[in-house]
Specification:
about 45% helix
Amino acid sequence: MKVGIKTGQGGYSYNELSQIWQKADALGFDSAWLYDHFIALGNSEADCLEAYATLSALARDTKQIRLGVMVTCTSYRNPALLAKITSTVDQISNGRLVLGLGAGWYENEFNSYGYRYLSNAERIEQLRETIQIVRAMWSEERATFHGKHYNIDQAINLPKPVQKYPPIWVGITRGTRVMPRVAVRDADGFNSVSSIDDLALWRQIVSAAETERQKIGRERSKVTYSLQAYILTGTQSDIQEIASQQAHKAGIPVADYLESLRKRGALIGKPAEVADKLSGFVEAGLDYLLIAAVGDKLGWPLDIIKNELLPLLPERR
């Protein structure tokens, strides 16, 4: 199973992000991810760097690790511009981009930045049209598309990405009907962000994706089913030290900080305990794990995950 890290940008300086990503690269993680928000999640007063400007710089700071934004909100950038941006990042990174795409959900952020927050159905329509436009501009000499929401006419996109078609994963929150179908029919897989504490929901999402995949005759190896998880692991003293430092920064008691993590669905425990919790997801189709490592700014929690947790994770059969 492949494993990446997810930092986001909220509350990080660029230098902190660069250090974390370079360490993940050196440790051999498969990928590293930002998020696509203008306002930091959890603390609107914290710094939050723009995703793709930051990703371009991190592409130059790293060497082998694949990279992306999980997920890019389709409403925030015209699809033709997104095709140009992602082609550029793939060039800068020498073919390491994975494009995460989502329909968006943060209505207050939409409103405060002047974007129209359309209905769920309309935003999914925008997502599907975005995939078509981006892929056309990645591959065609002059791309033309006329849809309900977007239009391009003889659009030139040079240079093309290094990869002929960088992988596209869509973000799924709780959807078990439409989005799993989009993931395998229009894109190359999905990342689920809210089913880590709900194995039954994960199974529903995978089942819907598998039904559609088999219906269209697509090979299982051509799609990726990924899951995002907050993880705090190590010995009891490791966990206590990480939690104490994070609680101190947040200005709250350690017990309250740990409870806030649990409410977010974080997996907290020794490596064997966390691996055991993840085993059910692997048995139910998980083949790529994105870890938001609690305490990643400290550096050494990534060592624990790489050296003590990952060897215990089962492989998908």
